[in-house]
Amino acid sequence: MSPDEMTNLKTVISTIASVTATVMLVRSVANDLIPKEFRSFVFDNFHELFCRFSSNFTILIHEFQGPSPNLVFEAVEVYLGTIVNSSTKSIRIGKTENDKGLVITMEKDEEIIDVFEDVKVKWRMECRRIESGSQNEEIRDMIAALCSELRCYELSFHKRHKQKVLNSYLPYIMERSKSAKEESRAIKLHSNFRNWGPDGMKLEHPMTLDTLAIDEEVKAALVDDLASFVKGKEYYSRIGKAWKRGYLLYGPPGTGKSSLIAAMANHLNYDVYDLDLTEVRSNSSLRSLLLGMSGRSILVIEDIDCSINIENREKVEEKENKHNRVTLSGILNFLDGIWSCCGEERIIVVTTNHIDKLDAALLRPGRMDMHIHMSYCRLSAFKQLVFNYLGIRQHELFDQIGQLLEEVEVTPAEVAGELLRSKNPSISLRGLLEFLENKIAERERLKAETELREQNEVAEEEPKDATKPESKFDSSEDLTHIVDH
Ligand SMILES: Nc1ncnc2c1ncn2[C@@H]1O[C@H](COP(=O)(O)OP(=O)(O)OP(=O)(O)O)[C@@H](O)[C@H]1O
Ligand SMILES: [Mg+2]
């Protein structure tokens, strides 16, 4: 910089300093000498004049709308927490019992610049102390009991964007904040043991759809199905159906049915309502339990074949009604749409170890929309488990173990149990190999024993049969055989 430029810069700086000092002096003298009413009269008129010529438009969003919290303010607060950027110098951080992680909010007098469809807007947060006479007295006292200052978001942008901000940007913020709030909310587990309880317990199950070991194709189909369900609000209302979806998980114990429910809850961030049907006294209490559930939730009925005898529908209804117990038709009725009148976004998951025992009425499409077979552990599920437990994707023993898994029925739970024994992959996998070989040997031993026993039984029965008089009318099967021919 040349000496001349240096001198000019110094002059500019000293001029700014003296103007600032003068303004501050005038302001403090004016504050002392000029009455408050007159000052605000001058300020208001000056502000109005300024606004008339300014190209800016400002929207104020206050914390309260009368005595009630302002929902737009709440939405803006959540939204701004998600777009903290380089224009923000300080933020406020907090966390409550109901939050999954840290909650970021804007600090007072801070500014955030946001860009929405090429429109640049500026957000600023202001706090004002609650002053007497500023509100209806009753409302003021009510608010003052909650907080000592009133917060307000100021949104400013070029006035030519007014329509876009009002018609698109603000609705977009309402939508985004809703999903951000849902994502950050801790998942709760409710049980009907005490009528769901007031708040439920925090569900902190670590299982996710990534760590769940099931067939890749099944997993992909499930993820797609869940995604279209979640986005299906308009579709369900268009076709006039309750916004719900049923999943039936079936398979032997230890194949991951309960784990899949936890993974679904984590994936969707839905609360889980665990319904123990043996605790439900009647269809009407079932109905009130279901009406007491919140939306965006998963209703779980585990081991449905054990909790209610639904094998023989007619017989059970007759018998259960006598004791005013919950019946299959009670369950089917709500699956068919008791929910259609209230609430939305509900998933029902029913699990069973014996799909063959279930009544066909429960399996009809529209009730259980997707049937997922949780089966024994095969190579792809095994590889996922090894990655979860040992952190490796390849090992020389994989082929050998893969072959054995084709020969023996072993559940993911059993494989997981073996993999837990050592953190050293070679020790752990060799242990699993041995476990599988022992299982096959045990199976062969049992098979040989059974064959031997059957042979002995036949040998014991033979002399008895020989003494028996021959009769063609011994069994109904034989009788049918004769009549038919
Ligand atoms: N598919 C799987 N992927 C990952 N881990 C699994 C899987 N299946 C089972 N496990 C492990 O085994 C344990 C038991 O599995 P889970 O309780 O989910 O089985 P289940 O099918 O619900 O059994 P049940 O029919 O007895 O209720 C889980 O906690 C998990 O550690
Ligand atoms: Mg289970």
From TrEMBL:
Family label: Belongs to the AAA ATPase family. BCS1 subfamily.
Signal peptide: none
Domain annotation AAA+ ATPase: ranges: 243-378
Record GO terms (molecular function): ATP binding; ATP hydrolysis activity
Pfam families, sorted: AAA, AAA_assoc, AAA_lid_At3g28540
Protein known as: AAA+ ATPase domain-containing protein
Region described as Disordered: 447-485
GO biological process: response to stress
Catalysed reactions, semicolon-separated: ATP + H2O = ADP + phosphate + H(+)
Cofactor(s) for this UniProt protein: Mg(2+)
Originating organism: Capsicum annuum (Capsicum pepper)
